[in-house]
Amino acid sequence: MTRFLKPATSLEQQIALLRQRGLHVPDEKKAKHYLDYIGYYRLSAYMKPFQTGTEHSFRVGTAFDDVLDLYVFDRHLRLHLMDGLERIEIALRSVMNNCLSSQFGAHWYLERGIFNSALDYPEMLERLRSEMGYQSRRKRETFISHYLNTYTEPPDPPGWMMIQTLSMGSVSRMFEDLQTEHQKPIALMFGMDHRVLISVLHSLAYVRNLCAHHSRLWNREFRIQPMIPKQLAKTFKGPSNRLGIVLILMEMILLQISPETAWKEGLDTLLQKHPKIHKKSMGLT
What we know:
The chain is mainly alpha-helical. The chain folds into 2 domains: 11-62, no CATH class; 73-282, no CATH class. Helix 4 crosses helix 9, helix 4 (64-104) packs across helix 10 (194-212) and helix 4 runs antiparallel to helix 13. The chain is 56% helix and 1% strand. It has helices spanning 11-20, 28-37, 40-44, 64-104, 121-131, 142-150, 159-162, 168-177, 180-189, 194-212, 230-233, 243-257, 263-273; strands at 51-52, 57-58. 25% of the residues are buried. It is built from 13 helices and 2 strands. Strand 1 (51-52) and strand 2 form a beta hairpin. The chain starts with 10 loop residues before the first helix and ends in a 12-residue tail after the last helix.
């Protein structure tokens, strides 16, 4: 442990440092603009593939636009993933509610017996009520307020209302806590074994949070890794802690819920627009 002594630097000083390290900056006005609106620290993560040694020297011929292109690619990659994740999240909410409400009625989540004992049910119910905005009218959706102001019994809204207020992480945890017999028909709708789907959903919720917070995806090592389905185990030889396997799993699910989807074609187009991208860093061959 030591004291932090690095001083804040001006845009001129930042550009001078980049040039000193060998980065070609032909348009200083353009570089200042992006350093102003993106920030040196954020862009520095996209400089690392072009640098060598401990002095952060740039490889010969590296230009500011090379760094910027990588940053722009990663931004578009997050947006493309969010498009697919939105569809998966909405499908998960719908399938869970349809499967469970057909068996246990509109207020299926109030049936304590369908959940495992691993998670304390009263605690789970309290968390659900918090996400529905019971404690804060400003956070509460209009349809939740309408139910609470209109009906007295049951005191909680039906499952199709409740599940619309949950985050993807909360829905994935609820799915995990269902008894196995109730997980299986839901997992079947996504073309996966229930144990694999639990793992995949946790991984996708993690990736969604990264996207929502504008975090780097391109060459990140993921802390939460998905289980690889049997149908992929023989063909997928990449790492399980990179983005590649997530992209493949998302494509599998999206083809299941929307067979005519062009999501993969959109991803291919994005990669073609940025031919310098090192795919191996994403866990792709």
